[in-house]
Amino acid sequence: MADTLAETTHWGNLKTEVAGYVGIDTLQEQIRKKVLKRGFEFNIMVVGRSGLGKSTLINTLFKANVSLRSCSKSEEKVEIPKTTHVKSVSHVIEEKGVRLRLTVTDTPGFGDQINNDNCWLPVLDYINEQYENYLSEEQSVTRKKHIPDTRIHCCLYFISPTGHSLSPLDIEFMRRLDRCVNIVPVIAKADTLTIEERVGFKQRIKQDLANNGIRTYPMKELEEDPEETVTNNKIRELLPFAVVGSNQQYPNNGRTVYGRKTQWGLVEVENRSHCEFSDLRDMLIRTHMQDLVEVTRSVHYENFRQDRLASRRGRTQFNGQVIDMDSMNESSL
Amino acid sequence: MTSNTLSNFPTTNTSGMTSSGKEIFLNKEKRNGTKEKDKEKESSTSSNDVQGYVGFANLPNQVYRKAVKRGFDFTLMVVGESGLGKSTLINSMFLTDIYSNEYPGPSHRVKKTIEVETTKVLLKENGVNLSLTIVDTPGFGDAVDNSNCWQPVINYIESKYQEYLNAESMVHRGTIEDSRIQCCLYFIAPSGHGLKTLDIEFMKRIHDKVNIIPLIAKADTMTSEECALFKRTILNEIAQNKIKIYEFPDCDDEEEKKSHKLMKARVPFAVVGSNTLIEVNGKKVRGRKYPWGIVEVENLEHCDFIALRNMLIRTHMQDLKDVTNNVHYENYRCLKLAGVGADGISSAIPNKNPLSQLEEEKKDHELKMEKMEKEMEQVFEVKVREKMQKLKDSEKDLQCRHEQMIKTLQQQKNEIEEKRKQFEKDKAAFENSNGDTAIHKIHVDSNSKEHLEYKEKKKEKKKGLF
C-alpha cells in the first residue's frame, strides 16, 4: 500500500522512518467506529421490462423482502402502468452490527408499451433530480453535517434472454445513461439458456456494447493500481452476469438452498456452475459496494455538477454581471 | 373384398387407430347411408360375405388415393418477437432442419423493418406428400416503437385472400393454388405476468382473419406452478379482450375424447423447441441440456410440445384448413364483395337502379350547368370591371389634357396681354414725346395719301383686269 502511494502521489518524497510505535494504525479503528455509528447508504436502481424477475433478484440479493412489489400492500396483481414510473422504497438492514440503509428504486412500465420512444426519460430525470437535490444541499449556506445521499449508486439493467443480441431498446437506454450512472448489465432468467447459448449470447452482447461505445461498470479509466485491474478484468470477463433469482428454498443433499424446482432438475441460485448470481452478489455487496459509491460521488456527480455550474455561469455572464459562483447561495439564483 | 379394402385403408386423420377401429369407422359411414341398402350392407360386413355388395364403401379409398396423388399443402405462419425460439420450434415440429446453419432462421439475419418471409418445404412420409409453407415475420415487435407493426402481417394475409378470390372469380380457372394462411402460431414471451399490450393489440386485429393458436415460448423458464398460473392469466385476458382463438373441435370418437380433452386443457401450449439430439438413458431425444438437468422436448411432463404437434398435424390439420376456407375466407369475401373496405367503412355504393341513375345524371347535369353559369357570370363581371376602369382612365386623360390646354391658352393670353400693355405703354410714351397735333395731321394726310394711292392702284388693277 505504501508503494502505490509512492507511485501515484508525491508522498514518496516525504517518507521518513519512525523510531518506535506511534499508534497511527489506530486510525483504522477510529474511522471504523465513526462509520459504524453513522451507517452506510446504498441506492440501487433496477431497470428492465416487466416479467424479467427484477423484484425476485433484489429480494434474493439482500435475502429480504426489499423490492417494491413485496412492499406494496395494494392489490395482488400489480397493473402494468401506461408510462414509465419511478418508485423508491427504503429499508434498513443490519448484519453484525453494520447498518445499511438500502434504497431500491424500481421502474415499472419501462419498455412495456407498444411505442417505447423516450421511455428512458423518466429514469434519466429521476437520476438528475437526485444529483440536483444533492447539489442544492451542498451549496446552501447552512448545510447539514451529513447530507442524505439519495443519488443512485448502481443501476442494474436487465437484458431479456433471447439468446441473440441486445435489443434496440437496450442499446438506446444504455447509451443515454452510461454517462450519468454506473450501469451493470445483467442477463435475466438465465435458466432459459444452456451453457453454450449463454457464452455465445455474452459474446454478442459485449460486441454490441463495444460497437456502441457503452461504458459499463467497472470502468477501465478509473483503475489506480494493478490489483484492481486484475479483479476488474475478471469481472469484465463475466459481464453481463447471467443470473437466476429465487425466494424459495428447497432441500438438496442435506442442505437447503435457494433455487427453482422444475420437472427436470433443481436450479441452484448460489451454485457457481449453474448461474452467476454469486459473482454478481460478491461484486455488488462484498467487494465493490464502496467503490460504486465512490465512483458515483467522484465521477458521475462531479460531471453533473460541472455541467450544471458551467451552464449557469454562462447564463450569468451573458446577463452582463459576473457573479462569483462559490459564494452563491442556491436559493438566490 | 371388404376386408381387403380395410387392410389397404391407412391412417388418414386420427393417429393410433387399430384395425377394429377402422371397421367401426366404415360401419358408421354405412349407417349414415340410405336405409334400403343398410340392411344388406350390415349383413354383408357382419358375415364377411360378398353377396349384395354395391361398392360405394370404396369411396373413401378413392378420395384418399386422389388426395395422395395430388399431395397436401399447408400454410403456417409464425409470429412473435425475435429470440423466442420460433425457428427452433418449426424444426422440432416437422423433425427436419427447415432452418439450418446454411439457411439460418430470420432471427439470425439483420433486419431493419418488418418483413414477411415465406419458406417452402416438401415433406414426404409413408408416400404422402406435404407441401409446407412457413410464413415468418422477422422484426415483429423488436423496434423501440412498435406501433402498427402488425400492419405488414395483416396486409399479407389479406393479399393472400385476394389472390384466392381473384383466382376463384376468373373465367378460366384451373387448379387454384391455395396459399392462404391456415394457421397462425403466436408466440408469447414467458414473463409470468400476463399478455403484453402488443400481444393483445395484435391478436385483436387478427383473430377474425386467421386461426390463432397462442403458444408460450421457451417454457422451460417456468416451473409447473408458474406455468399453470401464467396460462390461467392468459386465458383470462384473452376472454376479457374478447379475442377468438382457434378452438379445437371435439372428436367424435369415444376413445379419443378423453385424450383430446386433456390436450385441449393445455391451451395455451407451453412449448420448448430444440435442434439438438441428446442421449438420455441410451435413447437419443431432442432436448436441452442444462447443468441441472435435461429438458426433453417430447416429454409431456416437461412441456406441451407433443400436445401441440398432435393437435396441429395429426388431428386437426384438415379442420384448420376447413375453418380457414369456410369461415375466415368467406368473411373476407363477403366484406370485399359488399364493397366494404378493410376498416369496415363502406365505399361508394354503386346504385344499379336505372331511374335513380337518370335522376343522378340529371342532378349531375344541373350541377354542371350551375357551375358554368357561375363561371360565366364571373367572367362577365371581370370584363365589365375592366372596361369601366379603362373608361375612367381615358376620362382622366382627357381632363388632364383639357386642363393643360386651358393652361397653355391662358398663358398665351397673358403673354399677349402683357405685350399689348407694353405696346400701349410704348405708344403713350411715344405720343407724349412727339405732341398730339402732328400725329393727327400725319394721320389725316397719311390717310388721304394712302387713300389716293389705293384708288390709283385700284384703277390700275381694274385696267389690268380688262
Automatic annotation (TrEMBL), chain A:
Recite the UniProt keywords alphabetically: GTP-binding, Nucleotide-binding
The domain of life for this entry's organism is Eukaryota
Gene3D superfamilies the record matches? P-loop containing nucleotide triphosphate hydrolases
> A single Pfam family, by name?
Septin
InterPro entries (alphabetical): G_SEPTIN_dom, P-loop_NTPase, Septin
Please list the residue ranges annotated as the Septin-type G domain.
38-311
List membrane-spanning regions: none
Protein family according to the UniProt entry: Belongs to the TRAFAC class TrmE-Era-EngA-EngB-Septin-like GTPase superfamily. Septin GTPase family.
Q: What is this protein called?
A: Neuronal-specific septin-3-like isoform X2
Instruction: Tell me the organism.
Output: Limulus polyphemus (Atlantic horseshoe crab)
TrEMBL record, chain B:
Matches recorded under InterPro entries: G_SEPTIN_dom (IPR030379), P-loop_NTPase (IPR027417), Septin (IPR016491)
List all Polar residues biased stretches.
1-21
Question: By its UniProt entry, which SUPFAM superfamilies does this protein fall under?
Answer: P-loop containing nucleoside triphosphate hydrolases
Basic and acidic residues bias spans: 25-43, 438-457
Keyword annotations for this protein?
GTP-binding, Nucleotide-binding
Give the span(s) annotated as Disordered.
1-51, 430-466
Its family?
Belongs to the TRAFAC class TrmE-Era-EngA-EngB-Septin-like GTPase superfamily. Septin GTPase family.
Q: What is this protein called?
A: Septin
Q: Which species expresses this protein natively?
A: Limulus polyphemus
Q: Which gene encodes it?
A: LOC106463145
